[in-house]
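hey so i finally got around to running the thing on that chain from the lab meeting. sorry it took forever, my laptop kept dying and i had to restart like 3 times. anyway pasting the input first so we r on the same page abt which one it is
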Amino acid sequence: MLTMFWLVNKWQRVGVVTNGKRAVAQMTVGALRPGGQQRRATKKPNRFSFPSSMELSLLHPAIKAFMCGSFSGTCSTLLFQPLDLVKTRLQTLQRSVQPGSGRVGMMSVLLGVVRTERLLGLWKGVSPSCVRTIPGVGIYFSSYYSLKQHFFQDRRPGAAHAVMLGGGARTVAGVVMLPITVIKTRFECGRYRYASVSGALRSVCQSEGPAALFSGLVATLLRDVPFSGIYVMFYSQTKASLPREISSSPSAPLANFSCGILAGVLASLITQPADVVKTHVQVNPLLGTAEAIKYIYTDHGLQGFFSGAVPRCLRRTMIAAMAWTVYEQMMAHVGLKS
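ok and heres what got predicted. didnt touch it at all, straight out
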């Protein structure tokens, strides 16, 4: 609807549509004045130019937050997808290790993927990751912005309020994007041979029923909601403690990124067990959350709940730090306070 409004507005301004008929634009190129001198040609407008700052200002602030969040999520997803794949393989391939052969590490999985599936194999699952992240991060940031403006407006949220803001925004995004999260996890684990995201969605619905697309909902929310709440709390409080001269200096993005890394490490470690449970539930449709917890503990002990912790910590920390830094810079660029 917004796109149609913008196109019609541009179309009418250049005088191309009048009373439903095609009309000649009000421009005379090379026309002669009475004295025989050539009139200066008017500049032809570019019908396909990007929206101007005035046109962008017509967009609702939540839509601007959605656009900024989607862009930041796209950049981070493409860059750190290999870490997510290695994390998923570590969490689902531990059963293939023979007793006494030693534990599979991050580098052995990484090299194994490159050796058997070549370098591009590290980006397996990037399609569902992008399908999930581009709208998912946009939904998250637009929900976060809307909740913050509704409840706090210009006031700075406290630590407990930051937890609720981050958790509430993540709940909305997590539920909406869960079907794509399930497909992404199955792409990355290497057990399923889906050709495309749409084909995977059809296959799951036909063979397991639509409910399978929401498998692991409880475990996903137990992982994502606390992660987002803890992250936002640590991030906002750490950033607020920065000296004013740093916050207003050109090095502010770097300082914000550093705050994001610290917050991401703490939030990732706290929510790692829930991530392992979520992965097992989504890869093994017959497992419920309680059965997955029992299975992990029986086969791997307490350390099984922290398998894949290093690549996940690296990925989630870097993605969150980059996404928030890019988001805040873009929000400032479009004139909104993040």
